[in-house]
Amino acid sequence: MRTASHLLWLPFLAAAMISLPIIASAQEACTTYSVKDGDTLGSIAQAAYGTFDYQNIFNANRDALAANPNSLPAGLQLVLPCADGRLAPDQELSSVIQAETEKQQATAKKSNVYEPPLKFVTSNNWAPFTDESLTGGGIFVRMATTAMQRGGNNRAYTVAYVDDWMSHIDTLLPSGAFDVSIAWEAPDCSKLDMLGEFSTRMCTEFDFSLPIYEAAYTFNTLPDSKFANARAFSDYAGAKLCRPEAWPMGDLEVQGLAPPVIEVVQPKNPLDCAEMLMKGEVDIYSIETETSVANFKELGVTDKVVTNPALTTFISYHFLTSKNNPRGRVYIAMLNRGITEMRESGEWYDILATGLAEFNKKTQ
Questions:
Q1: Cβ pair 141, 132 in contact under 8 A
Q2: Which of 31, 141, 195, 338 is in the most buried spot, having the most CB atoms within 10 Å?
Q3: Does domain 103-212+317-363 have CATH number 2.60.120.260?
Q4: Stretch (H or E) spanning 204
């Protein structure tokens, strides 16, 4: 979950994190790369882009990496996108979107049966993913509305922005005021006994679509911290860890990282966590890699922080419906059909890349 103060994500930052040993070699953006023994996503990103931020590599190779992004087999072929998100120098951004839209317009059939528009709700201030100032309302909103016109769907919809995320969960979805919220992280519901109260509630009271995005969450420390060389999550026992209020905790909980094993500090703003780390008030700052890179760049301390190269969690984001909604699972099935077609056609990645390119131009 997020609050309205969510920091802008900068997925293609050129600012480097702390210099790590670069095992991989000969990587160049806009090419493919064959993984060598000892490579990590972080080392590959540093060699190709000059930054530890490997989210763009994961986005372009999701099918190959989703099962185990922390263990790269030698010989795995990875696409290294261009800096603007294109998968190849001769590919135009939005070309797949245009082709799929034209195909939908040519084959769409109108039904004589009236069906009320599906009501989406989301929030502002989560650029580049959800914000009214962005094209189509942001990347996640574009994915939702496009899914309603793919996979055999042809359903009308409305999108509203209610800038109080908890109201989506507490009132708007359970009451039926809205059908689907865009978008939420899903905890590992197969491990309910390890989850906290909020994560358990998400598992038991709501239904999730297929994943629409997976974000890498990293663990950052000062170089001289006793936790800097952690190689297992259990090595963080006794640490004071900062993750902002309303950010997901399920990824930590399933690794046994919850009180009293660790102390969790939760300020409202991500930048507060970065400042607390630099002052030595916390041992670890854990958040999605794009936000941490942006925070440390803003503070001018990218060379004074180390990011653990061995420990990463991936959190997936989904469309969400309430189990109280009698049509909720029907809507999830419709969205899943659209998501599946968008993945297969490449339109999902095109929406992501064009949305990031637009956002990066605004923030340069």
A1: no
A2: 338
A3: no
A4: helix 197-205
